Amino acid sequence: MTDRLHSFTLGDVVRENARWLPDTEAIVCGDDRLTYPEIDARTTKLANVLRDIGVERGDRVAWLGLNCHRLFEFIFACSKAGAVAAPLNWRLSSAETAAILEDIRPKVIIGSSRPEFDEVNANARAVLPSAGWLSYDDGSYEQALDAASSVDPAQDDDDEAGVLIIMTAAFAGKPKAAVLTSRGIVQQDLMLGAVGGVKPMTETYLSSGPMFHIGVLLKAFALFHWGGLNVMIPRVDAEEVCRLIDREHCTSAFVFGPTIKEMAELNADGRYDLHSLNDVLGGTPPPELDDAWYSMTSCPRPGSQPRGAVGYGTSETVGMITYEGRLPVGTGTFGRPGPAMAVRIVDPDGAEVPVGQIGEIVARGPQVMVGYLGLEPMDPQGWRWTGDLGRREADGSFTFLGPNQEMIKTGMENVYPVEVENALKEHPAVKDACVIGVPDSVWGHSVRAVVELADGEPAEPDELIEFVRDRIASYKKPKSVVIVEALPRSGPFVDRPAVKGKYGEGETWQ
Amino acid sequence: MTDRLHSFTLGDVVRENARWLPDTEAIVCGDDRLTYPEIDARTTKLANVLRDIGVERGDRVAWLGLNCHRLFEFIFACSKAGAVAAPLNWRLSSAETAAILEDIRPKVIIGSSRPEFDEVNANARAVLPSAGWLSYDDGSYEQALDAASSVDPAQDDDDEAGVLIIMTAAFAGKPKAAVLTSRGIVQQDLMLGAVGGVKPMTETYLSSGPMFHIGVLLKAFALFHWGGLNVMIPRVDAEEVCRLIDREHCTSAFVFGPTIKEMAELNADGRYDLHSLNDVLGGTPPPELDDAWYSMTSCPRPGSQPRGAVGYGTSETVGMITYEGRLPVGTGTFGRPGPAMAVRIVDPDGAEVPVGQIGEIVARGPQVMVGYLGLEPMDPQGWRWTGDLGRREADGSFTFLGPNQEMIKTGMENVYPVEVENALKEHPAVKDACVIGVPDSVWGHSVRAVVELADGEPAEPDELIEFVRDRIASYKKPKSVVIVEALPRSGPFVDRPAVKGKYGEGETWQ
Questions:
Q1: Are residues A148 and A15 in the same domain?
Q2: I need a labelling partner for B38 at 20 to 30 A (CA). Which of A264, A265, B71, B236 fits?
């Protein structure tokens, strides 16, 4: 908790940017073009609309709709109103949406009046019949703004209070609501300006990823904070993306690989000028379109220069806590920790492991969330345990290995399956692998690899064990290898519990 | 107050830099060369030395000595020990030093054993006979470190607690002890990395200004934080400065104008290679040495490119709150506010004045001090009043005018003397001017200018009044001008109270 004198909130970002950038365009969305002072005025009015509906300090407000400049305004308005903004994924199932809304219990939902939203809206109203409602795309939002007071309610007097909820991925169980603070978001803005590749004032960013993801939002926040131009698009559409890059001379964009492929194909005749674009987050073109893509844009080829806003991060830490960009390249795969967050690699007891060894990634500092809404509070003296595995390299750089789905205890040693799996996958005959622990009368557990081979590539278990032994510590190598036709999968991911059930010799999923 | 989970302190800077920069040199001081892990280890040991002497959380520790890597270590060690570091100016008078020590009451003083410090040391011991004592330059410091525990005491669990005291200038009355926080210093580090011209990793900075000034310290902190190399020099000496720039290939330095003059003269024969130097804070060469200086260094000529770590700031806000550097140039003289501090121009009631009008500069945000040690606490809902006058320009940029020494009320209007003085000084015949209020039966007060003319440059009062009227609002022009042989001065500054006493028609100093 910080006092007003020492706070700098998302509301302050809008208030101050209106003053130091009085003539600068901040957001383009469809035919709407808004300057920083206009955003300041509109967010004040929206904050008052929310308060008139009954939103009080600490209340949640949800967004159930597409990308739009109003989504961005809604987050800043929640700050001014002292509320917590929750941009939600409206394409989840009814059951998922219901579970999330019951968790968050927003006082107001801002949603769409378009027919495709009928089902999600009906569902939301059934779950929360008493929530206030505002449609952002039928004119009622603008009418409400016109009628609202233009006196800033200024309820944001603590920049360590929650201001934004990001729903985490539901890897196991249901998604959780990570509550982020203004202080954490502002620090990320400063980090991205310093070493994360955001270029103060001179950048135009096409925010074409879904804005309920922190990875998309954090770049849009930073660019806004640093006086750049955010170009919004309701949802991704390759031709519209091309048209906007051409019209607005976008220098950066968030675009996934499949959209890049479509863009390169439809623009083969050069009908859109994409040469302003020099930085793309989210994906790369397929190899056969490499030459076309890199000649129709100014993007550097991967590896030809340090990447910009790239690193390891989690929703619970306002995204990145390690950075490439302007920090020196090392042997690690994900840059280095940014210097205003403590990042450690620890064993299950929380003791830091030596350099070069794998452990769980923990973090501490201003970007750490307040906690998960409605769940047990975090230890104020402790660390945020990310649930991910990493390694500090001898040169100080950082490697992220994957989620810490489980750990095998064999004798006194800890073996993380992901490390063994990565070693196995380096073998040309291995298509995929899942490493599990099986009961062992001597060691408690021993390491077993269940392996799916690439078509027509034979390999013997002993050969694979030797292959792994050459790459990682001997105690981590599989004691047994089971070669299977096909690993059980859930979507694109190997279904580890199913592998354990089938090949685990009675070991159950922890 | 922030919890440990969300804090990032100066102690954390050292701890984390040791991890992400394990092989990097951090500080060069004389023949000592120290890496980041070495600084981490040494600051832990010094923190334990201080705790062994009896320093507890919140206690102050003073430094009474020259620049040295140990001064830098002492600040970071105080953070780890939960204490507050106070680097003091040892060249003050005995009375001034005594007053400061009585204010701060340090538990331990770290000082010099060199004979030139005998008087200041005796004085300090007389004021605070019970304070612990450690000499940094007779070997006892290193002996104490050798004997100390290497287990980090980790008492820095709140980055909004005081960690550094900077004594403010004693313009009127005695100096005050501004207590700054880790949070504020770390934010300044990030700002300097983003827009203040500090270049992550690649910069070597010769810290040749006195390190009890925030203007010198903040660049050294930021460079340390961003992985650069700090080169220390006990005190400024033109030849030694040249030698160190040559030996260490320094890219930036803090050097005052007179030292630059000496350097340009003594290096006329090019005996030192200064071409690594491309950024100097603190001064510029005299015109006759311009060509020599800009050809023996790589410094850009003033105005040829945006300046780096330059802007308006105060000790009470960890230095700068407006920046040139990477923010766009405008019509204002001091860049734009950095986007994580609120900066406003207000009237005496605290209401924001319109763009283009002069008022007092107030600030809010993480860089604001905790308060002055021992004085009334700050208003947690308020602003930091800087005592300086500024103006927001129409393009959003910022102009600093000078200290708000007083304000003249004439009718309903407020006139700030500094603005009228600046206008008068644009006249070629005016050497210096002091503007005061004198009693006026109609308006309460009217504006009077007391003017000292340049040698052999005659000017009439009416001419000067007309000259001012062409430049600023008519109600601000002097109603009377008194031309004097010489303005009363106190050192280099016009003695305003004396001017009022002599030419103020009975008006007394407020």
A1: yes
A2: B236
Residue B402: strand, helix, or coil: strand
Q: What are phi and psi of A118, to 5 degrees?
A: -55, -45
Position A302 pLDDT exceeds 80? no
Cβ contact B359:B377 at 8 Å: no
Question: Which chain A residue has the Cα nearest residue B335?
Answer: A20
| A443, two tokens | 């060691």
B301 DSSP 8-state letter: P
d(Cα A482, Cα B85) in Å, to the nearest integer?
62
Alpha-carbon distance B368 to nearest alpha carbon in chain A (angstroms):
6
A19 vs B201: CA distance, rounded Å: 33
Rounded to an integer, the average pLDDT of A46-66 is: 97
Question: In this predicted complex, what is the ipTM?
Answer: 0.86
The amino acid present at A166, given as its one-letter code, is I
Distance CA(B432)–CA(A105), nearest Å, equals: 67
Given a cut of 90, is residue B92 above it in pLDDT?
A: no
What are the two backbone dihedrals, phi and then psi, of residue B274, each rounded to the nearest 5 degrees?
Answer: -105, 15
Q: Does one domain contain both A384 and A426?
A: no
Residues of B in contact with A341 (CB under 8 A): 8, 16
What does each C-alpha distance from A93 to A90, A100, A101, A119 come to in angstroms? 8, 11, 12, 10
B476 burial type by CB count under 10 A (0-12 exposed, 13-18 middle, 19+ buried): buried
> How many domains is chain A built from?
4
A 10 A CB-CB count for A351 gives: 9
> Mean per-residue pLDDT for B122-140?
95
- Cβ atoms < 10 Å from Cβ of A310: 17
Strands B430-440 and A252-254, sheet pairing: unpaired
Q: How far A392 CA lies from chain B's nearest CA (Å)? A: 8
Q: Are A339 and A190 in contact (CB under 8 A)?
A: no
Interface test with A, best of B20, B183, B316 (most A CBs within 10 A): B20
A432: nearest Cα among A507, A476, A388, A493: A493
Answer whether residue A147 is part of any domain.
yes
- The domain boundary, picked from A403, A432, A461, lies at A403
The residue among A4, A6, A399 with the most chain B CBs within 10 A of its CB, best to mutate, is A6
Q: What is the DSSP string of A307-329?
A: -SS-S-EEGGGTEESEE-TTSPP
Query: In this structure, are residues B165 and B104 in contact, taking their beta carbons and an 8 Å threshold?
Result: yes
pLDDT of residue A308: 62
Q: What angle do CA A187, A190, A196 make, to 5 degrees?
A: 115
Element (H, E) at A178: strand A177-181
Q: Which helix (H) or strand (E) holds A187?
A: helix A182-194
Do B179 and B162 contact (CB within 8 A), yes or no?
A: yes
- Which residues are CB-neighbours of B199 under 8 A, at least 6 positions away? B226, B228, B251
- pLDDT-based confidence at A411, cuts 50/70/90? confident
Residue B290 domain-assigned?
A: yes
Domain holding A292, by residue range, is: 236-296
The residues, any chain, with a CB within 8 Å of residue B305's CB and separated by 6 or more, are none
Tokens for A11, please give them.
Answer: 């509301």
Asked if residue A200 belongs to a domain, the reply is: no
**Chain B contact set for A15 (CB, 8 A):** 342
Q: How far apart are CA A33 and CA A464, in angstroms?
A: 60
Query: H helices within B249-395, ranges in order?
Result: 257-266, 290-296
The DSSP annotation for B141-185 comes to HHHHHHHS--S-------TTSEEEEEEPP-SSSS--EEEEEHHHH
Among B269, B296, B323, the domain-final residue is B296
Nearest Cα neighbor of B261 from B238, B244, B245 is B238
* C-alpha of A157 from chain center: 27
User: Tokens 């802007």 belong to which residue?
Assistant: B311
Q: Which is it for strands B84-87 and A108-111: parallel, antiparallel or unpaired?
A: unpaired
Query: What is the per-residue pLDDT for B173?
Result: 56
The verdict on A477 and A499 lying in the same domain is: yes
- Three-state SS for B467? helix
